[in-house]
């Protein structure tokens, strides 16, 4: 599985706003939480961007369904003053989580909305209304936990898009984290034991900023 094919609600801009990922010719993910690839898995940049309004819903379409158990999360990072959206690498303590698609605990363990009962290709989220206008990277990640019975088995499938956010928001996004750095291999949200059956789950990373 890999992201993206298109940005939902922004199809008219085609793929000009996406940064091409290193798995564009195959479906391998990132397995090292300390790798810079955990930021955008970027192979090639993009000169384009998509304009979106704070408070609107946007998302990604994968090349195939999310065929593994695990969480789907969205992060954003504002391009620092003096940096260019097309070339900024997303480094620094700049990323904040804007959405987590959730999960449901059952007698059999954890159910994921992208995997059970229907495997999804489209994932989306609402940009917080109070997000200040500016240039941002939007990062989507699907964390595959089917081989993560022990620490170190998680696989990350991710991509970044370039957007210009409009609006009059005055919020202060946070907590801010870095990639790499936001996750540790020992994080409980990066393992999914088969036995005993899990009775709870906490996704890795900071709390979601809702504005």
Description:
The protein is an all-beta fold. 2% of the residues lie in helices and 30% in strands. The chain has one helix and twelve strands, in the order ββαββββββββββ. The longest helix is centred in the N-terminal third of the chain and has 4 residues. It is globular and about 50 Å long.
Quaternary organisation of the protein chains? single chain
Described by strand count, sense and barrel closure, the largest sheet is: 5 strands, mixed
Query: What spatial form do the alpha-carbon principal axes imply?
Result: globular
Uncertain spans, ≥5 residues at pLDDT below 50? 5-16
- Could you estimate the helical fraction of the residues in percent? under 10%
Q: Give the SSE order as H and E letters.
A: EEHEEEEEEEEEE
Tally of strands:
12
In short:
The protein has 211 residues and is mainly β. It is 2% helix and 30% strand.
Question: Which key terms come to mind for this protein?
Answer:
single chain, mainly beta, 3-stranded antiparallel beta sheet, 1 helix, 2% helix, 30% strand
């Amino acid at each position: 599985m890999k992201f993206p094919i298109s940005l939902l609600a922004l199809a008219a801009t085609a793929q000009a706003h996406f940064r091409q990922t290193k798995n564009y010719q195959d479906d391998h993910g990132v397995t090292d939480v300390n790798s810079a690839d955990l930021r955008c898995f970027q192979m090639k940049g993009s000169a384009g961007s998509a304009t979106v309004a704070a408070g609107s819903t946007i998302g990604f379409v994968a090349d195939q369904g999310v065929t593994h158990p695990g969480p789907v999360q969205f992060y954003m990072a504002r391009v620092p003053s003096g940096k260019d959206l097309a070339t900024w690498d997303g480094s620094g303590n700049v990323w904040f989580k804007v959405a987590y698609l959730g999960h449901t605990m059952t007698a059999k363990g954890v159910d994921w909305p992208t995997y059970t009962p229907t495997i999804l290709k489209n994932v989306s989220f609402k940009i917080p209304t109070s997000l200040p206008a500016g240039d941002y990277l939007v990062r989507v990640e699907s964390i595959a936990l089917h081989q993560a019975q022990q620490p170190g088995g998680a696989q990350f499938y991710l991509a970044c898009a370039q957007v210009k956010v409009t609006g009059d928001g005055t919020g202060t996004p946070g907590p801010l984290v870095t990639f790499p750095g936001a996750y540790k291999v020992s994080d409980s949200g990066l393992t999914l034991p088969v036995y005993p059956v899990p009775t709870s789950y906490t996704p890795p990373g900071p709390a979601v900023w809702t504005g």
